[in-house]
C-alpha cells in the first residue's frame, strides 16, 4: 500500500487517480489521514492533476484546524492504493529491507533495484487505471432567470433558455416563482459535466436573450 514518492510526478499521478472517485484519503470527512498525505507533498499538484489539486486546496483550508481533525496520523505508507509499493521508508534502513537482501548487492546497487521495482509497479498500476472508464465529474445547478417586467412572455423566455444546447448540458424541470409586483422568475434545473460547461458560460448564453432576460443567478449548486 502507498502512493510512492509524493514529491515526484509519478507519485502525484497515483494520488490524482486515487482521488478521482474520493473526496478524502479515508472516509467521508477530512481527517489526520489527509494531513499526513498533505504534509508529504512538496508543492501544490499541477493543474492537469485536477483531482489531486482540488483535494490539496480543500485540505489546505483546514491548516489552522488540522490538530483537531479526527483520526490518528499513521505512517504515510499506510495510505493509498493497495497495489502500489510503499517506498517512503526505503532509504532509512536498507539492511532490514527483505527485497534488498535477496539481491545480495551493495547499497548503491540495492537502491537502483528498489527504484526499478517501484517504477515497474507504478507503470503496472497506471496501465490498470487507464483501462478503467474515467469518472466524469458532474454538477446539478438550479438557476433563477429574471425577466424585465410582468409583461415579459415567460413561455418564450423558457423556450430561449432551453434552446441553449452544449455537450455536457442537460436541462431538467422548471417552474415560475413569484418575486413581487406580478413579476415571476423562471427557476430551471440543469445537470452539467464540470469539464465542459460552467456557470459563466450559462450566464453569458442566457443573458444574451436580452429582449426577455434581465439577469441570471445561481440558486443552488451541488456536485453529483
Textual characterization of the structure:
Mean pLDDT is 84; it is low at 89-108. Helix 1 runs parallel beside helix 5 (107-130). Helix content is 34%, strand content 20%. It has helices at residues 9-18, 32-38, 50-60, 98-103, 107-130, 154-162, 199-207, and strands at residues 138-147, 169-180, 183-193, 213-223. The two termini are 29 Å apart. By secondary structure, the chain is of the alpha+beta class. A 4-stranded antiparallel sheet has the order 2-3-1-4, covered by helices on one side. Among the domains are: 9-78, no CATH class; 138-223, 2-Layer Sandwich (Alpha-Beta Plaits). The longest helix has 24 residues, at 107-130. A hairpin with a 2-residue loop joins strand 2 (169-180) and strand 3.
Question: CATH H level of the domain at 138-223: which superfamily?
Answer: Ribosomal protein S6/Translation elongation factor EF1B
**Which CATH architecture of the domain at 138-223 is right?**
2-Layer Sandwich
- The tally of strands reads 4
In order across it, which strands form the biggest sheet? 2-3-1-4
Major β-sheet annotation: 4 strands, antiparallel
Mean pLDDT rating: 84
Pick out the low-confidence regions. 89-108
Number of helices: 7
Approximate strand percentage? 15-25%
Topology pattern, helix = H, strand = E: HHHHHEHEEHE
Distance between the termini: 29 Å
Amino acid at each position: 500500500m502507498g502512493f510512492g514518492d509524493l514529491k515526484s510526478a509519478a507519485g502525484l499521478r497515483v494520488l490524482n487517480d486515487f482521488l478521482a472517485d474520493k473526496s478524502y484519503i479515508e472516509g467521508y470527512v477530512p481527517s489526520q489521514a489527509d494531513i499526513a498525505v498533505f504534509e508529504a507533498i512538496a508543492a501544490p499538484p499541477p493543474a492537469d492533476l485536477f483531482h489531486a489539486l482540488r483535494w490539496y486546496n480543500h485540505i489546505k483550508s483546514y491548516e489552522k484546524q488540522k490538530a483537531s481533525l479526527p483520526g490518528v496520523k499513521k505512517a504515510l505508507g499506510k495510505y493509498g492504493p493497495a497495489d502500489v509499493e510503499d517506498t517512503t521508508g526505503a532509504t532509512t534502513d536498507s539492511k532490514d529491507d527483505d527485497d534488498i537482501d535477496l539481491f545480495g548487492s551493495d547499497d548503491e546497487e540495492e537502491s537502483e533495484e528498489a527504484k526499478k521495482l517501484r517504477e515497474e509497479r507504478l507503470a503496472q498500476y497506471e496501465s490498470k487505471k487507464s483501462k478503467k472508464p474515467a469518472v466524469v465529474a458532474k454538477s446539478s445547478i438550479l438557476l433563477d432567470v429574471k425577466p424585465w417586467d410582468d409583461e415579459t412572455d415567460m413561455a418564450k423566455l423558457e423556450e430561449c433558455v432551453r434552446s441553449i444546447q452544449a455537450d455536457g448540458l442537460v436541462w431538467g424541470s422548471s417552474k415560475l416563482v413569484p418575486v413581487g409586483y406580478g413579476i415571476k422568475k423562471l427557476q430551471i434545473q440543469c445537470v452539467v459535466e464540470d469539464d465542459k460547461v460552467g456557470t459563466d458560460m450559462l450566464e453569458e448564453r442566457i443573458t444574451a436573450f436580452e429582449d426577455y432576460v434581465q439577469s441570471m443567478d445561481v440558486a443552488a449548486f451541488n456536485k453529483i
